[in-house]
Amino acid sequence: MRWSNPFSSRVPLDEQLAAELRRGRPEAGRVLAVGAGTDGVVVVATQECLAIHRPHPTADQQRWEFIGWHLISRGGWDRETGRLRWTFVDQSSGSVVLTQAGSVPPVFRDRVQASIVVEQVFPAPGGGHVVIAGRRQLANQTSGLVWQVTTMGAARLSNPDVAEYVTLKTAQLKSDYEQ
Question: Cβ–Cβ contacts within 10 Å for residue 42, how many?
Fold first, then answer.
């Protein structure tokens, strides 16, 4: 019986899936890491995005899901459960369980970080904090930055004072980081 390390760095990508990936997301760029999950799920970390292939999608899923690194607000890897998870700025989230993680977890972390051009935390009027980030789509280095705002603690974007403050701070950051 051959023992398989679920955290080995090399998980192969089937040629047919690689061709589907290129057709579905030609701008994805080079494959950096591949992981495999239960029920035939394959996770591919590319230069531009996290691509998830589900051979048996549920009614609310597609066969391929492509997530630009610049759209992931936060995420991480739980080695004990094998779960790779991510959260978007709107607080929606996703995850996948990997039985063979390959190099996906460190590449995930590196690519999300690589998309961040600037990220600053400011105290918000009335309490809490706002985090303003300028993110770049990694497949297109000449594209403009995508600006994202998240709140922490008591800060709420629905508060007019906080919204006005965020608008001002974002404009200041844009003038510093965009040409």
Answer: 23
Residue 6 and residue 118: Cα distance in Å, rounded? 35
Parallel/antiparallel/unpaired status of strands 116-123 and 83-88: unpaired
What pTM was computed for the model? 0.85
Host H or E run for residue 163: helix 160-177
Q: How far apart are CA 140 and CA 68, in angstroms?
A: 11
User: Could you identify the residue written with the tokens 């974002």?
Assistant: 170
Closest to 89 measured CA to CA, from 117, 111, 67, 122: 67
What pLDDT, in 10s, does the model give residues 33-88? Answer: 999 998 899 999 999 999 999 988 888 778 899 999 999 999 999 999 999 999 99
Q: Which of 5-9, 21-25, 111-115, 162-166 has the lowest mean pLDDT?
A: 5-9
DSSP state of 3: -
pLDDT at 9: 55
Q: List the strands of the sheet with 129-135, edge to edge.
A: 116-123, 129-135, 146-152
Phi-psi sector, 74: left (phi>0), alpha (psi -120 to 50), beta: beta
